[in-house]
Write a structure and sequence with these properties.
The structure is a single chain. The chain is rod-shaped. The protein has one domain. α1 runs antiparallel to α2. It has helices at about 10-20, 30-65. Helices cover about 65% and strands about 0% of the residues. With about 70 residues, the protein is mainly alpha-helical. InterPro entries: RNaseH_sf.
């Protein structure tokens, strides 16, 4: 049996994107469905990592300005 919870979704926005990505897909079997989910997940994961990477300089500056204290980001 397939485990659709193999990847943990990190937010409702991510869940929505996976559902939107499947909207026009008509899988013929569980394998095709799983392949499409993995494809969408990889795209989302890349986008997520890129966003984190781009935000790091700003996050580091905020921590430095707070003299190492916690910051709201």
């Amino acid at each position: 049996m397939y485990k659709l919870n193999r990847f943990r979704l990190t937010s409702p926005i991510t869940s929505y994107k996976v559902i939107e990505g499947l909207r026009d897909t008509l899988p013929q079997n569980p394998n095709q469905l799983w392949e499409k989910i993995e494809e969408i997940w990889e795209e989302l994961l890349e986008e997520f990592v890129n966003n984190l990477t781009r935000s790091m300089p700003n996050r580091i500056n905020m921590v430095l300005n707070a003299h190492g204290s916690s910051v709201n980001y």
